[in-house]
Each structure stands twice: as structure tokens, then as C-alpha cells.
Write a structure and sequence with these properties.
Oligomer: single chain
Distance between the termini: 117 Å
Shape: elongated
Radius of gyration: 38 Å
Order of helices and strands: HHH
């Protein structure tokens, strides 16, 4: 047995489009790039970062290109080992001279 609805439970309304037509007609202006001023001039930080990026890329490229010649990884490791051994020898010599040997 269905219970009849009261008039207080009934809501009268109509369906409307969720997007107002005024918002569709006016496009929002594009946001300015934070690295540029309104006049199109780049900021100092933007220019500095770009220059630093190009510099580090060129230095890295030169280092990588140099590894193919006499500066192979093995040759560099040998140079480091030789330098470390020379430092140890020099330190031992200084210690001997301080002891009076």
C-alpha cells in the first residue's frame, strides 16, 4: 500500500545549464609568463638561468668529448692514484724530517 505524497514533499523546479552563457562568450586573457614582464622583457633570473644552463652544457660536452682521447676513465684513475701516492710519499718525507731522521 503506497502512501500518497504530501504537497509539502513535492519540489517544483527546472533544469538549467551549469555553465552560464556569459562565461562562454568572454574568453579569459592568457596569463603572462612569469619570466617576462608585461612588455615582453625577460627577467634577470630567467636570463641568468639560461646562460648558466648553456655554460654547464658546454662544459659537460667538452668533458665528455675529451674522454675519447688520452683522457680515458682509466687514464684519469691512474693520474689520481699517482697523485695520491705522491702526496703520501711527500707526507712521509715531511714526517721523517720533523723527527730528525
Amino acid at each position: 500500500m503506497d502512501k500518497p505524497q504530501d504537497d509539502a514533499d513535492v519540489v517544483d523546479g527546472e533544469l538549467v545549464d551549469e555553465t552560464p552563457t556569459a562565461a562562454l562568450a568572454i574568453p579569459s586573457p592568457p596569463l603572462p609568463d612569469p619570466d617576462y614582464s608585461a612588455g615582453g622583457v625577460p627577467s634577470f633570473d630567467f636570463v641568468r638561468d639560461k646562460i648558466e644552463n648553456r655554460y654547464t652544457t658546454s662544459v659537460g660536452s667538452a668533458e665528455v668529448a675529451g674522454l675519447g682521447t688520452e683522457n680515458t676513465a682509466e687514464a684519469l684513475d691512474k693520474k689520481i692514484a699517482d697523485r695520491d701516492q705522491a702526496a703520501k710519499d711527500r707526507l712521509a718525507e715531511i714526517r721523517r724530517s720533523m723527527r730528525g731522521e
